[in-house]
Amino acid sequence: MRTWLLAALLLASPAWAQDNPLQPSAMWEDLRESVIGLSSEPPLDATTLDLDAPVRANDAALVPVRLRQAPDAPPLTAMTLVIDQNPSPVAAEYEFGPALMPLDFEVRLRVDAYSDVRAIATRADGEKVMAGRFVKASGGCSAPAGKDMAAVEASKGEMRWKTARQDGRQIGTLMIRHPMFSGLQRDQVTLLNIPANFIDRLEVRQGDEVLFTMQAGISVSEDPVFRFAYKPNGQPIRVHAEDLDGNSWDETFEAAG
Predict the structure, then answer these.
(1) Is the peptide bond before 24 cis (omega within 30 degrees of 0)?
(2) In the CATH hierarchy, which top-level class contains the domain 2-253?
(3) CA 41, CA 48: separation in Å to the nearest integer?
C-alpha cells in the first residue's frame, strides 16, 4: 500500500519546469505515417492539449506524464501516446468518454533512451492535435522489476480506487498490481529473460458509462497508476483488465472510493 501511495503522490504533484519542448526526430518522421498513419504533422496547440513530463526522469521506468486541456478546450475522443526511441514506440492508445472532458489524465511510462514523448489526440470533430516533451531517461524498458517473482504472482491483478475533490473537480486514482513485463527484463535469480506479459486491455466505467479504455504496449510502467479528473454520475466504478497471458480481472468500487 505504501508503494501505491507514493506512486499516486508522484502523479499528483508534478514538479518539473516546462523547458523541454519536442526536439527534431528522424524516428518520428518514419513513425508518423508508417505506424500512426498521419500524412502530415498534427498541430501543436497547448490550449487544446498539453503534455507535462520531467526534463530529466528520476527513474526511467517510472516517468510521470500528465495530459491536460484548458477548461474551454474542444473535447477529445481518443489519444495515442508515442515514445519515439522506445523499442515499441506506441506506448498506449486511449479512448475517452465525455465525463473526462476537459482532459486531465496522468500515467507513468517507461522511457528507454533520450526521446520525445508525444500524445496525438483526436478531437470530437475528427481533427488531430499533438503535444509532447523531450525527456532525458535511459534503460526504462529493461529495468528490473521491483519485487521478487513470488510476490508478483501473489499480488497480480489487485486493484485500489480512491477519489478526492481538487480545484473544483472530482479526481479518481486507479492503481493496479501488475509487473507489466516488457520482454526485455531479466529474472534477477536465473538471469533469464522474462517473457513479455502486460495489461494490454483496460476498461474503466462508472455504471454503464465509459470513462476511458486503454490498449497498451510494453511502455506502461509496473503497477500502473491512472489519475484523472471526471464528472461523477453517482454510479459505481467498474474496472475490467486483461493481460497477454489471458488473465482477466474485474472489480467494482463504490463511487466515493
Answers:
(1) no
(2) mainly beta
(3) 16
- pLDDT of 234 higher than 70: yes
Extended strands (E) in 41-114: 50-52, 63-68, 76-83, 90-96, 104-109
- Contact predicate 73/152, CB 8 Å: no
Please give the sequence-ordered ranges of beta strands (E in DSSP) within 58-208, or none if there are none: 63-68, 76-83, 90-96, 104-109, 115-123, 128-135, 159-166, 169-176, 199-206
What confidence score (pLDDT) does residue 181 get? 95
How far is it, in rounded angstroms, from Cα 162 to Cα 8? 10
Q: β-pairing, 90-96 with 209-216?
A: antiparallel
Note if the pTM is more than 0.85. yes
SS3 state at 143:
coil
DSSP state of 221: P
Kind plus residue range of the DSSP H or E element containing 209? strand 209-216
129, amino acid identity: V
Contacts 24+ apart (CB under 8 A), 52-55: 52/14, 52/16, 52/18, 52/133, 53/16, 53/20, 53/117, 53/133, 53/135, 54/14, 54/16, 54/20, 54/135, 55/16, 55/17, 55/19, 55/20, 55/133, 55/134, 55/135, 55/136
Question: Are 137 and 105 within 8 A, CB to CB?
Answer: no
Domain map (residue ranges) of the chain = 2-253
- Kindly state the helix (H) or strand (E) to which residue 225 belongs, with its residue range: strand 225-230
